[in-house]
TrEMBL record:
InterPro entries: ClpP/crotonase-like_dom_sf (IPR029045), Enoyl-CoA_hyd/isom_CS (IPR018376), Enoyl-CoA_hydra/iso (IPR001753), Enoyl-CoA_hydra_C (IPR014748). It comes from Zhengella mangrovi. Could possibly oxidize fatty acids using specific components. Pfam families: ECH_1. Belongs to the enoyl-CoA hydratase/isomerase family. It catalyses: a 4-saturated-(3S)-3-hydroxyacyl-CoA = a (3E)-enoyl-CoA + H2O; a (3S)-3-hydroxyacyl-CoA = a (2E)-enoyl-CoA + H2O. One of its GO terms (biological process) is fatty acid beta-oxidation. GO terms for molecular function: enoyl-CoA hydratase activity. The keyword Lyase applies. CDD domains: crotonase-like. Keywords: Fatty acid metabolism, Lipid metabolism, Lyase. NCBIfam families: PRK05862.1. This is enoyl-CoA hydratase. It is an enzyme of class 4 (lyase).
Length: 257
């Protein structure tokens, strides 16, 4: 499949999506949205893929939604087309998605990274929701996902002042899961993705579903949901294989990957 604004590749059981509008610092126009969502859906449906990595360039993961494309739009335009609702498709990906972020992850770039399951940041990464400087507000989930990830105080600070957070602050705040030197970013993300893709895929998908549930429900309901999914893992052949391999002191050979 030939794309205009992204590159796709596979390495082993990992699908890689690279945002590729270098002249615009990977600004997210509507073509990027359609192509990223399309590539995610294609990897999700591909039996040979167990995990997906989204990345950008060393200078920018993505510097936000495309301001030049948005600038002439009226209220009617944005409302009628439900601008950016198309990104919801990205969050319906059932296989894990890792964001490997170097450089700017601003506005929609930060929001796309937060749609992923976790963020591995290079030490030059800078996160921010600078929409307020344009007299708009986040429109791809920034006010909601950032608040859930870093808490109200820091999310307010980011959304109201438009300041950027460096990689260390992002890790400290729970936005990034780890920070690595820029030169190691892709190796680290690929190592994590390959590890995930080596496990039993239905168990991996259930773990993702269970963690995501925590953001949507009460603790009592979430614990119940987790327990029911946990019980259902005992229907997997791979559960027998995983536990047998442990007791027999050998490597598991999972069938459902
Ligand atoms: N949209 C469109 N074009 C963008 C862009 C964006 N979000 N960000 C950068 N570019 C373009 C610039 O216009 C420039 O293009 P030209 O060479 O044709 O002028 C090119 O990318 C390089 O950018 P700069 O010259 O500005 O590079 P810099 O290194 O001096 O600055 C930067 C980098 C600080 C990231 C700066 O580009 C910047 O502030 N970008 C905008 C960040 C922003 O406000 N993002 C939020 C967008 S709104 C949004 O995302 C809404 C939402 O929630 C969905």
């Amino acid at each position: 499949m030939a794309y205009e604004t992204i590159l796709t590749d596979t390495r082993g059981r990992v699908g890689i999506i690279t945002l590729n509008r270098p002249k615009a610092l990977n600004a997210l126009n509507l073509t990027v949205m359609d192509e990223v969502c399309g590539a995610l859906a294609a990897f999700d449906a591909d039996d040979k893929i167990g995990c997906i990595v989204i990345t950008g360039s060393d200078k920018a993961f993505a510097a936000g939604a495309d301001i030049k494309q948005m600038q002439p739009l009226s209220y009617q335009d944005t409302y009628a087309q439900d601008l950016f609702a198309g990104w919801d498709a990205a969050t319906r990906t059932r296989k894990p998605v890792i964001a490997a972020v170097a450089g700017y992850a601003l506005g929609g770039g930060c929001e796309l990274a937060m749609m992923c399951d976790f963020i591995i940041a290079a030490d030059n990464a800078r996160f921010g929701q600078p929409e307020i400087t344009l007299a708009v507000i986040p429109g791809m989930g920034g006010s909601q996902r950032l608040t859930r990830l870093v808490g109200k105080s820091k999310a307010m600070d980011m959304c109201l002042t438009g300041r950027m957070m460096d990689a260390d602050e992002a890790e400290r705040s729970g936005l990034a899961s780890r920070v690595v030197p820029l030169a190691d970013l892709m190796d680290t993300a690929m190592e994590a993705a390959e590890k995930i893709a080596s496990f039993s895929l239905p168990a991996v998908m259930m773990a993702k579903e269970a963690v995501n549930r925590a953001l949507e429900t009460t603790l009592t309901e979430g614990l119940r949901f987790e327990r029911r999914l946990f019980h259902s893992t005992f229907a997997f052949e791979d559960q027998k294989e995983g536990m047998s391999a442990f007791t027999e002191k050998r490597k598991p050979n999972f069938k459902h990957r």
